[in-house]
Design a protein that fits this description.
Elements: E1 8-10, E2 23-26, E3 35-41, E4 45-53, E5 60-66, E6 70-78, E7 84-92, E8 118-127, E9 130-138, E10 143-148, E11 176-179, H1 187-192, H2 195-202, E12 208-212, H3 227-244, E13 248-252, H4 273-284, E14 287-289, H5 291-306, E15 311-314, E16 326-332, H6 334-350
Parallel strand pairs: 1-3, 10-11, 10-12, 12-13, 13-14
Antiparallel strand pairs: 2-9, 3-8, 4-7, 4-9, 5-6, 5-8, 15-16
Helix pairs in contact: 3-4, 5-6
Length: about 400
């Protein structure tokens, strides 16, 4: 996996306010910049972003991410004089729920691009070739609300990543993802701080809500806690609230930790929480994606040593200011998050979830976690922001 040093330019001239009109950003002058961010000030909602790629003087390879490093365009090649146009949908939001309530975001989230009043795009790549960006409001496409913890959240900073910010890469501009997840959350705390209520305030008939919990829930020791008590009750709340608004709930069992037995098999660390989620899904007749099993297969296929490549395992000095090695067996790096996103997509296909019709034609259907993509074929251009503190949760 190659790592490329970036020079970042903030294009202050491209900060606009969008109301009902379409905004077009002509960025030909930025073609000489290796990487930059560009932002527009817009109300909460979903926006269609159309990117025109290509240059008459050189061949390009462009990556575009939005908000907190949600991947949309990945190393897209353009030949000299070739032009390509790619569209995708981005959800933008603030903590505000209504005139009286706001999501009680964590202190660390106050600088996250996911929660400000701007829609921000990051243009990067080996040789970015973005000519123009058009942004317009979309109120029709279904929204998929993602609820979960650090294994789902949009991670702002290198080298951390989660599947929720990678899954966007494989879908067209006919469906939008709103990732409300946050590190350290449980099903009940997610509800308690207003994250579910924020999603419900934006939800409409035909939308979807995906829940992956269990990592942190198992550590709760308060009265009434337990897989078949507080946890199951919270999951039922998600289902009831979503269905009242005409949305479809989908459960995903928690990802495995990188914990191996002596025989090279993954050690179970989630107690009965995956089984409790399956029980609620069956009782409520909800689709269930068994990511718990799929990531077991994935990490066992990689092996105890090889699986380090999917997690935040880096020697000291890999990132600026990093004086100690990273050895995190819960949180993923971009390569690991990318593989798990493919597991989730295959689960959606197997469950025949309707919005899989909006997968991009180039999505390589038939991903098998027992045969993950080769590490050396994954190419990720680092963002300029690095965080040496691991996310909440374990």
């Amino acid at each position: 996996m190659k790592r490329i040093a970036l020079v970042t330019l903030i294009l202050h001239s491209s900060l606009f306010t969008l109301h009902s009109q379409t905004i077009t950003l002509n960025l030909r002058d930025s073609l000489s910049c290796p990487s930059y961010y560009t932002s527009v000030q817009v109300p909460d909602g979903n926006y269609r972003v159309t990117v025109t790629l290509g240059d008459k003087k050189f061949a390009g390879s462009t990556t575009v991410r939005a908000e907190s490093r949600r991947l949309f365009i990945e190393n897209e090649p353009t030949r000299k004089k070739e032009t390509k146009t790619i569209s995708f949908l981005v959800n933008k939001r603030t903590p505000r729920i209504n005139d009286r309530e706001s999501v009680r975001i964590k202190e660390r989230e106050r600088t996250k691009l996911n929660w400000d009043d701007l829609l921000t795009l990051e243009v990067t790549g080996d040789r970015q070739a973005v000519q123009q960006i058009t942004i317009e409001r979309d109120t029709v496409a279904p929204t998929v609300f993602l609820c979960g913890n650090s294994t789902v959240v949009d991670q702002d900073d290198e080298p951390w990543a989660s599947w929720g910010q990678m899954i966007t890469r494989w879908f067209t501009d006919k469906v939008c993802f709103c990732n409300l997840a946050e590190s350290g959350e449980t099903a009940s705390t997610f509800i308690g701080v207003g994250r579910l209520k924020k999603g419900l305030s934006m939800m409409k008939p035909g939308d979807y809500i995906i829940m992956e919990f269990g990592h942190n829930d198992q550590k709760q020791k308060m009265p009434g806690s337990g897989a078949y008590y507080n946890f199951a009750t919270a999951l039922k709340t998600f289902v009831d609230e979503a269905r009242q608004r005409g949305a479809t709930p989908i459960f995903i069992t928690p990802t495995q930790r990188r914990s191996f037995d002596k025989d090279g098999r993954i050690r179970e660390t989630h107690a009965d929480y995956p089984e409790a989620m399956a029980w609620v899904a069956g009782r409520e007749k909800c689709a269930l994606i068994d990511l718990h099993q799929m990531t077991r297969e994935l990490f066992e296929a990689m092996g105890e040593e090889g699986s380090k490549r999917a997690f935040v395992h880096y020697p000291a000095g890999s990132y600026p200011g990093q004086t100690k090695p990273f050895a995190d067996n819960t949180h993923f790096n971009p390569y690991g998050a990318y593989q798990i996103a493919k597991c989730v997509i295959e689960g959606l296909i197997q469950q025949n979830i309707p919005f899989v019709q909006y997968l991009r034609p180039e999505y390589p259907r038939g991903y098998n976690p027992s045969h993950p993509d080769a590490f050396d074929t994954f190419h990720w251009t680092d963002s300029k922001h690095v965080d040496l503190v691991k996310p909440d949760g374990n």
